[in-house]
Amino acid sequence: MNERNWVTTLNNNYTFPTLTSIVDIPESDGVEVPVYLDGLNQPYDKFYRKISKPFFNNDSINSFAVNIFTQERIPLVYNPEDVIMIDFPNPMDFMTKNEYYMAIQRWYKYMCTFFSSVQLPIPISGEFYIPLLPKIFTKEERNDPGRYRTFKPNLWPLLPTNYLSMIDMLINHDNIDPNGEFGEIIPKRNPILYKYHITSDEQWQSSLMPKEPDPIIYNNFEEFEDTFIRWASLTYSSIKTPTIPPNQFTKLFGVDIAEQSKEGPRPVLKEAKPTKLNMFSEFTSCLKPNNTNLISNSLVKTLQTLLIRKPHKENVKFSYFGVSSSFQDEMENFGYSTFNDSKPFAIYRPLFYSQKVNIIDDVNIYIVKVSNSTNNYELLLDLASHTVEMGDLDKIMNTSICGTNYAQIIARDKKLLNYILDMDSITQYHSVRVSMILISIFKNDQSYSIMKHISSDMTFFQKLLVNLSTTIDPRISILSMSDRLQAIDCADIFRFYCYSQLLDMITKYCNSGLYKAIIGKCREFSLETAKYLYNNPKYVEDIRNHFPNLRKILFLSGSQQIHRILLGDDFLNWIDINSSFTLIQTIVHNSAMYQASMIFLKNAKNLITSDFITKCGDLTCLFIYQMSCYLIAIGESLSINFYCTNFNDVVNIVGTSKKKSIVSLTAPLTTLLLLTKRNDQEFIDLISKTSSYIGKNISEDVILYLEQIKSLLIFSKNSQCCLSMSKEENLIKRVVGHLIENDLSISHLSWRFFTHITANNDALLQVLSYPYVGSMLASVTTSGNVYALQRMLKFTVISWRKKNPLISGKLCGLLLPAIGRIVCLYKTRHVVFKDNNKVRELIEIFIHQIQVLNKNESGDFVATFNRHMDSNVIKKGFLHNFMNRK
């Protein structure tokens, strides 16, 4: 491979490979949609062919998805002609940090929307350089006349004014003269040139590499190979300065490469004589020689009897953790009995296992051993006693013994298969190895004959499944048929369950012949089972209510047809009667959840009635909640619009219930209701009445109130619903009463609803017409509730910025009684909120907004405000009172 020389920024030489041949990138045929973008936003189709002409979509491809709440069109196919490139927000254009952050979020959302359907290029590095923070002098430095003594224009960080000027130039993409000078200069010092802090040279870490093609989207290897070659050519041509290969780090930076050590022959451990261990040394060391007779003869005899060492099993091995290697060697070679009987010597309690782990060092030598073997039972036992990698195990299974594949020999001999299954109980290691042997047999192309044994012996089949699950997924628990269910009616059901479980487990391991055979069996027994259940509704009823194990087998079977029959149109009733956590989770965590959700979507009005919710249990409520969330996830991820007008009556029922578990369903059911793709006035009137009905019946109980408000928040996305809810005085009074709540969770949700509903001008005027709203706004200034104060200030500023004379006048009238306290807060903000920059900024924005109010709209409010601002008097006790309120 040819290499080219490059130079680092430290003037060190390194080499980087060059492609032997670079192919030209052809033009796209105009049929394929854009899939990839390079660093210059040049689109390419999935074969990495350049798309130079505007892409005109045909009618067969849906170009846009629609957000049901915002009606925003989200492109599903990238078209460069539709993308309006907007510049990154400039901080100089915003008054506050929060406004700037919001602008960045809008920019990010826009970019994500229009680039969501293409693969963007990838940065060559995850790190990039940013300018040093500006130089801000401390108070001491500002008073020091020699603060510029060490100034160097090419080393010092920029002063704040120059820093903002640099950011402005970069964001606006201005033409920058390297020898140009920044505006603010240091007295009696050289000017600060642009080139000291800005460079026009492209940085290697900012290079964007086109995304590597994914093999999964190509029909064959040839397509992928051609695409990959074009991608490699395009990528290599895009590299201005390539990265340094890791194998040259040692030469350039003196960094050693950590290489994996190669294991040599195992060292032979020589037995060393153990040191003499005296379990009584702690006591005998304190005894003088002439006092040894303090231990009586009778005590010595008793100790001798107790210390007689019991015989030990030589085949027991130990695994030690947290002890020194010398101590471990002594115990392994000399100390079995001592370790078992003399407890004081056990530094840590050992973990026992029955046999050492044996490893096949050279699989090729072992394959020769297999090919020369004459006793398959001894060979299988030896294989199950060794730890071997899956790839090596596949090689062993492919070994020919007397002209027959080893896997084929095992697969057609049921005695050998049963012998393998019986070995799983020898040790925990054997169970794992047996499972791996079975997987390797299923992978082998010559093992089709195992299907004969599976089909004829269900006990063997079930034991096989249990062994396979040991390594494929230990969480799987294979269900068994009890003696009570061994009737002929259940035989096909149990076979279908076993075959479907086998298919799920060995899909990624199984050879094609076995895979097709298992799928055929699944179809056969699925049809037989569904036909039997359809023709025997009484039997289905018995399964639902009296045979939980059989019911679980059918739900785990994976057949949508069987799920539909077993659930039935009124499934919530029998599930509520037989409700258990196991039953509900069995449905939720497999494909039966889809059928249950679709039936619920269709029959919700008939399922959730007033009579049903009076007897409905908490577990059933949890199940309904999970189904609702499942449908929402489908609708949002796939942009599906459900027709859920029948949910309107359901939301009315659950939203006004006095049962906490029922009311918790209101929010997800409301979301489903609004997933209906209807913008006609009839539907809007329908949901407006529903939101008003829930608002009129808002609960006094805090927990029920929170659940209802969550639902009403969803309704507030519709402007007519906002107006309808604003006219429910009971709802507004309840929400306003919680705005100064000390419990932040209640206060936060109440403020969210209040600000959402008042985003509509008509609704805002309606809310401001209630006298208690003005009392609340005025009382916030003395409440001591910092969160409520922040939200009140934001709400007022936003309302004033609407430039609506009626709204501005109404707000000024409501806040007039509190103007003195507001001015006091402003004047004492650096004391009261010395540790809260955010509140100080909001107060300053609030005061600024008052100063720009139209006097004709504000009446006496601005004049009264100015009088208070001119006064130097702060009410005694006000500052102390606010700071000590909770």
UniProtKB/TrEMBL annotation:
Biological processes per GO annotation: positive regulation of Ras protein signal transduction; positive regulation of TORC2 signaling
GO cellular component, one term: plasma membrane
PANTHER family the record matches: SCA1 COMPLEX SCAFFOLD PROTEIN SCAA
Protein name: Uncharacterized protein
Lineage: Eukaryota, Metamonada, Parabasalia, Tritrichomonadida, Tritrichomonadidae
